[in-house]
Structures are given as C-alpha cells and as structure tokens.
Amino acid sequence: MITCSPDLYKSIKKDSASRKKTIKLRIVFMGTGVFAQFVLKKLLEKEYNIVGAYTQLDKSINGDRQVAVEIVKKLAQQHGLPVFQPEKFTPEEINRLRELNPDIIVVASFGKILPPAVLSLPGFGCLNVHASFLPEFRGPSPLQNALLLGKKETGATIMLMDSGIDTGDILAQKKFPILENDTYETLLKKTSSEGSELLLQTIPLWIEGKIEPQKQDLSKATLCQLIERNDGKIIWEEEAEKIYNRFRAFHSWPGIFTFWDSKGVLQRLKLTKISFQKKDSETPRSAGEVFKQDGLVGVQTLQGIIILEEINPEGKNNMAIKEFLNGYPHFIGSVLK
Predict the structure, then answer these.
(1) How many angstroms separate the CA atoms of 267 and 233, rounded?
(2) Contact at 8 Å (CB) between 67 and 58?
C-alpha cells in the first residue's frame, strides 16, 4: 500500500503549478543497471531537470579488447546529460557534485555507499528507489532473494537515505504479487515500473511537505544474501520447488547448473528451461537420477521432480532435451552431481 492518502495523490495530479515547480528541481541521478536505467528514463519522460548522472565504471569484456558501456551512461549521453563515473567519492569528487547544486539526489541500485558529505548536500535529501518492501531484503539483490525464498509478494520503497544500508525513513511503499512463473527478468520489469511510478508520485508530495517520513520496523528487518556465481550449483538433495525457485532467481545470472559423468568425462550442464512437480514418481529413485516418465525427462530430488525442457552443455548452444537425448541417449539413467 502507498503510505500517503489517495486524496493527496489526486490533488497533486490536478495541481499543474505544483508539477511545474517540481520539474524545475535540480536533480542528480545515481544508479547502475537495468533497474536504474528504467527509473532515469521515467524521470526524463516527465521532463524533470536532471543536471547530472552518476553510474558505475564501464566494464571490460574479453580481457581489455572490448568495453561494455554502462547502460545508464548510454541513456544519459543520449539526452545530453553530464555523466560521472567516480571510483570513490573523494573530496574532489564531492566538490564537483556540490558544483551541480542538486536540490535532490535520486538513487536507484547505484552499488556504492554515499558518504555523509554527499547525503547532506541536497536540501531535499537523497531519495532511494529500493526493489523490496522495506525493511525486508535490505541490501543488494532483493529480487533474487524474494524468488529464492518463494515469496508470494514483494514491493517497491521510496526511502530517505541515511548512512546505513537501506535503513532510512520510508516515504512511500507499494506491494504487488509475485506470480508462480515470474523469473528475475519479469520481476525486475514489474518492480522497475512500479518503483518508477511511485517515485514520480512521491517527489512532488515530498518537496511540498505532504509526507511524514516513517521509521522502519527494525524487528522485521532482513538482509539480502549476496549472490555469487557458484550459488547456481544445484543440490539434488533439496526439494524440487526450492531448486525451481533457484532457477527463477538466477535465470539471468548466474544460472543453475549441474555436473554429468558421461562415460568418465565430467560435463557441466546449465539448465535453461525447467518446470517441476511436487509429487514423486511411484518408482523409488536416487536424488539426481535422470529418468523418463509420461514422455517427459525428469530428475529426482529430495521431494518432487524437476522436469528438463532445455539445457546448455558447456561450450555448446542451448538444446531442447529431446535433441540432447538424440546425441546422448545414455543420459537417461545417469545420476547428476
């Protein structure tokens, strides 16, 4: 639910003078990645006065031969915005930020902790768009964590930043459901949209003093698990639903994978499309055992079955499971590790 009354939201939409006033605000944007790009795009569409964009450094790929330009940087440059990519907020960098004279700083998945000297610069503070219903899932990767735990709903939060990690006072929040077929990508799109709209509703109310910041309930605070590449390793002694949730959470990165001993050669298999059923087959099987049932290819887990639909053998393209079996019929009956 939104923390401000619906009547206030209706009144601000009718007040054209207030809208014009908010657009004249000097806003500095800070963010990295798809979520941040979506938020910045919405601010630009509403013609807010963005005076500078901060983002992480560009990443090198294939060694030093090719550089992946940060997508927030691309969007900012397309709109003629000054772009800054500092490694740290040194005194020199803080002075450069001060020269932009921001009235407000909007932060979305920036990936850097803002020092007190930055937090205290704008008169209306630093507003963070966070992809969870705080105080749940503080920190990075809140969407992956919600999917990992099989949550049925999540939310977006607009928070007034302080020196802690997602510990600031809440200005506005909205909840929405997580569907059974949601993956990280679909949930990211949904949360980006909801979070951006909530920000656009919140900014004019905040600068007019119509929002009373609310303290977070510390008794309900949880922290995100940091996601690493090896977290995608499947443990077949877990329940099928838990493995499927891991697939949903890591669908974009790092993916889920297992190992298959193919006639003495250990192969890494990434599972790119799967489903699951909670009910076990009538035949007792070992965890990780591959078998055919009713025209499907399944893998036994601690409880339930993972249904294989598409896999990616290391060094090869994605393959439908039937196509894979044409080349490796001995896959059936093996036990994945």
Answers:
(1) 13
(2) yes
Alpha-carbon separation of residue 172 from 160, 194, 208, 293 (angstroms): 10, 12, 15, 50
Angle at 279 between CA 276 and CA 281, to 5 degrees: 100
Question: 125 by DSSP, 3-state: which?
Answer: coil
Could you tell me the two tokens for 301? 């887990």
Tens of pLDDT, residues 165-183: 999 999 999 999 999 999 9
Query: Residue 127's pLDDT is what?
Result: 98
pLDDT at 64: 57
Q: How many residues does the chain have?
A: 337
CA dist 43 to 36, 90, 98, 208, 210, Å?
11, 27, 21, 18, 20
Q: What's the rounded Cα separation, in Å, for the pair 265 and 219?
A: 50
Percent pLDDT > 90 in the chain is 86
Query: What pLDDT score was predicted for residue 65?
Result: 56
* d(C-alpha 11, C-alpha 15), whole Å: 6
The structure's pTM equals: 0.89
Q: Quick one: tokens of 14?
A: 């009718």
Task: Give the pLDDT score at 106.
Answer: 98
